[in-house]
Amino acid sequence: MTSSEVWTRADAERYDAGETETSSAAVLGPTLDFLAALAGDGRALEFAIGTGRVGVPLRERGVPVVGIELSEHMAAVLRRKIDEAGLPVTIGDMATTVVTGGFSLVYLVYNTITNLLTQDEQVECFRNAARHLEPGGRFVIELGVPPLRFLPPGQVAVPFDVSERHLGFDTFDLVEQILVSHHFTADGEDGRYRRSDSRHRYAWPAELDLMARIAGLELERRVEDWDGTPFTQDSPKHISVWRKPVPGRPGGPETTDVMS
């Protein structure tokens, strides 16, 4: 049983309207370029595909895409955009759900691995990615670097957006590595705001690298963004690529057991 919070019907119906900026061609283009290049002539599997913000346009680029999604309501919104034959989606969690066939690319964008609220589940997510990858295939994660440098002693909250129609800030439990994202969003023109929050387990890049090693994957590349900006100690997020070794090739194991 996953610890992830499940998106409701109301959440799903509002989701695309709230992501118009991240769905724009200017923002999404580099993401699609990056993922399509890694997929090559193979198939791509998106964990937590949601309403298809990335998966649908990637499929339109000619990459065969399959999705796993925990929320039936999010998947229903995706289904309005493309039919099952064009982009199959299996309802289930990204740590344990298995779909048929092999993939050259498994990807997980927009901080979504943090929806798994325990380290064990995040490790199983890496194992599940490796389970689906063909030898030489890649697992890609987009994830923010925890902004703990902005926390002075005694402070537990960090704002991440202060704008006319939205106020967002994160609060942190530093012992359990849990952050709660709080949102106050303008709802209509009558001055009312809608409040929402969500729980996440944050993880550092080095911790993800260890999870990858447990799953039999090797770090191939880490950059700051989809444009390939070099990753530094000041980068607010990272795009990390791990590769499943090809048995028998130099630097790779003779066998890779990822099914246990």
From TrEMBL:
<dbReference type="Pfam" id="PF13649">
    <property type="entry name" value="Methyltransf_25"/>
</dbReference>
<keyword id="KW-0489">Methyltransferase</keyword>
<dbReference type="InterPro" id="IPR041698">
    <property type="entry name" value="Methyltransf_25"/>
</dbReference>
<keyword id="KW-0808">Transferase</keyword>
<dbReference type="GO" id="GO:0008168">
    <property type="term" value="F:methyltransferase activity"/>
</dbReference>
<protein>
    <submittedName>
        <fullName>Class I SAM-dependent DNA methyltransferase</fullName>
    </submittedName>
</protein>
<dbReference type="GO" id="GO:0032259">
    <property type="term" value="P:methylation"/>
</dbReference>
<feature type="region of interest" description="Disordered">
    <location>
        <begin position="227"/>
        <end position="260"/>
    </location>
</feature>
<feature type="domain" description="Methyltransferase">
    <location>
        <begin position="45"/>
        <end position="137"/>
    </location>
</feature>
<dbReference type="InterPro" id="IPR029063">
    <property type="entry name" value="SAM-dependent_MTases_sf"/>
</dbReference>
